[in-house]
Amino acid sequence: MKTLEEKIKRAIETNKLNPEKLGERNWYGYFIRTTELVWARNFYDGYQIEVYTEKYGEHLATITI
Fold it and tell me: pTM, whole model, 2 decimals?
């Protein structure tokens, strides 16, 4: 079985998840929060995606792309 991180990365590669769409939203049974990372604050350019369960809000993963 795929890990959640692999599912998110695959979804970005196949354009089923657009990390440039910032904010909070529901996505395939998960609640996700996408934040843009800026080098001046984080020493890294990219996006941070936090994944929570849709029903209870339990934190499942944080993925940096």
Answer: 0.83
32 beta partners: 25, 51
Q: Cα separation of 15 and 6, whole Å?
A: 14
Q: List, as one string, the DSSP characters of 27-57.
A: ETTEEEEEEEE-HHHHS--EEEEEEEETTT-
Over residues 5-54, the pLDDT tens digits come to 899 999 999 999 999 899 999 998 899 999 998 887 767 788 999 999 98
* 52 contacts 40 by C-beta, under 8 angstroms: no
Residue 49 near residue 31 (C-beta atoms within 8 A): no
